[in-house]
Amino acid sequence: VGELQAALGDAKRQQELQEAEGQALRQELKDVRDGQRILEKKGSAALKDLKRQLQLERRRADRLQERLQELLAPTRARTGQ
């Protein structure tokens, strides 16, 4: 009976250790998933900001192109081209 109780005690300790390890692994998995979500949100925000900046630069380039055309137009008229 004593040996069975000792074996039962060992089995319970093993079970507790496995449960603790399982809980630690579940927490680690949750932390990794949370970190991944945060990185995805940061990446999405960065991409959105870059797209906004690109659009602003395109508008600026268009305005500069229009201004250049305006400046060149009188020159063409004066030279007869």
From TrEMBL:
GO CC, any one term: extrinsic component of postsynaptic early endosome membrane
Full protein name: GRAP1 protein
Taxonomic source organism: Pandion haliaetus
Any single GO BP term: regulation of recycling endosome localization within postsynapse
